[in-house]
Specification:
CATH superfamily: Fe(II) trafficking protein YggX
Largest sheet: 2 strands, antiparallel
Radius of gyration: 14 Å
CATH class: Mainly Alpha
Number of strands: 2
Structural class: mainly alpha
Order of helices and strands: EEHHH
Number of helices: 3
Length: 89
């Protein structure tokens, strides 16, 4: 049986992640409070940010930006904006 979490993003009891997505305190918080569905939504949103802002995963500034955006997306109360130039297909 899969484990469930009270998802901080979606506000429902949903299937949780199988393991923390990365090491550390934030990874553990995500594991305990974010559903698979919300994590999937974040990965999709992250891809948009990386592509539209042409971010490099090796750049520490880009890593910090994505970490901040991830926390806003998963745990923030405000809506997260898409880049101005983004045009959905």
């Amino acid at each position: 049986m899969s484990r469930t979490v009270q998802c901080a993003k979606l506000g429902e009891e949903l299937e949780g992640l199988d393991f923390p997505p990365f090491p550390g305190e934030l990874g553990q918080k995500i594991y305990e409070q974010v559903s698979k569905e919300a994590w999937k939504q974040w990965l999709s949103h992250q891809t948009i940010l990386i592509n539209e802002y042409r971010l490099s995963s090796l750049d520490p500034k880009a890593q910090a930006f994505l970490r901040e955006e991830m926390q806003k997306f998963l745990f923030g109360d405000e809506e997260v904006d898409l880049p101005d130039a983004y045009q959905p297909e």
